[in-house]
Amino acid sequence: MVALGALRIHPVKSGAGIELRERELDRYGLALDRAWMAVDEGGRFLTQRDAGALAALRPALEGDALVLRADGAPPLRLPANGEGGAPCRVAVWRHRGPALDAGDAAARWLSARLGRTARLVRIPPDHARRVNPDYFPGEAHTAFTDGYPLLVLGEASLRDLERRVGRALDPGRFRANLWLRGAEPYAEDGWRRIRVGEVELALVKPCDRCVITTLDPESGKSTGDEPLRTLAGYRRGAEGVLFGWYAVHLGPGRLEVGDPVTVLETREAGPAS
Question: CATH number of the domain at 3-28+132-266, please?
Answer without folding.
Answer: 2.40.33.20
